[in-house]
Design a protein that fits this description.
By secondary structure, the protein is mainly alpha-helical. The chain contains eleven helices and no strands.
């Protein structure tokens, strides 16, 4: 711990330390509960889960009649892309929750003797800055979702934006037009409740990890969708395609085996 930090924490009693930690923990728990509730409300309003089930049923019905289409394999493609992208949900969640708790708790301790206005300025700036970082990383994923193949291959039923203030698959224009007022509201919230701004800025580590991870998943899923479409056109069976997708992202030996099935050496770029 630096000398400056030690000086800022001088005079802090154990009781005050645990009291601050308790408040920060409670607020973080409230944040988690709010986001879970918001996701449930969004799903209820948009019918996203029901639409996915309907699409799966329709694709399965087509497959049963011998009409294989890429959307039938959408869930397999998505899972294979997740393996290839090596995105760990636990890392994202811990980054968001842990980051928020850290920003709220540690920031509060370091600023506890500062004037309220200083706390408010830092809270507002942190909230606005965090929101800007969030939107820039969200755009990386959003841009991938605008590819026509995203809907054609049924991937839109598995990847979407979790934000009640946006559509499920917002484009850059929507992110910009809605993002500006949302950033302003966030800054105001950070001014009124400085702990929100501090926590949000620190939570962006997990947010960015998730957004860039989603961008990678969609990018690889689109390429896999191309491969599956090619396999269907070659007349390969449902079992052969499922076997290929199950091998993708498992280990290097199985990846090479999957590539041999496609007889396309250039396809190795997906594993880069």
């Amino acid at each position: 711990m630096s000398e400056g930090t030690q000086q800022k924490l001088e005079g802090l009693t154990r009781r005050e330390f645990f009291k601050a930690l308790g408040y920060a923990g409670a607020r973080t728990a409230g944040l988690v509960a709010f986001n879970v509730a918001a996701a449930v409300v969004q799903d209820s309003v948009t019918g996203h889960s029901e639409n996915r089930k309907r699409a799966q049923k329709e694709a399965a019905g087509n497959a049963a009649t011998g009409k294989l289409e890429v959307p039938y394999f959408a869930s397999y493609i998505y899972n294979a892309a997740v393996r290839l992208a090596a995105v760990e949900p636990a890392v994202s969640i811990s980054g968001v929750v842990g980051g928020y708790l850290f920003g709220d708790f540690v920031g509060g301790l370091l600023l506890r003797n500062k004037p309220r206005k200083t706390n408010q300025i830092i809270g507002a700036a942190s909230a606005a800055g965090g929101k800007v970082v969030d939107y820039f990383s969200t755009y990386a994923a959003s841009k991938q979702m605008q590819d026509p193949r995203f809907v054609e291959y049924g991937l839109h039923n598995y990847v979407h934006e979790i934000n009640i203030f946006h559509s499920l698959h917002p484009d850059g224009v929507e992110l910009a037009t809605r993002g500006v007022p949302i950033a302003a509201i966030s800054a105001f919230a950070g001014w009124v409740f400085p702990f929100i701004g501090r926590g949000y800025l620190c939570a962006t580590s997990g947010i960015v990890y998730n957004n860039l991870g989603v961008a990678g998943i969609v990018s690889k899923a689109l390429v896999l969708g191309d491969y599956v479409k090619e396999m269907i056109n070659r007349g390969q069976t449902q079992d052969e395609i499922n076997s290929y997708l199950s091998q993708v992202g498992v280990n290097e030996t199985m990846q090479k085996s999957a590539l041999r099935q496609l007889h396309s050496p250039q396809n190795s770029n997906i594993f880069k």
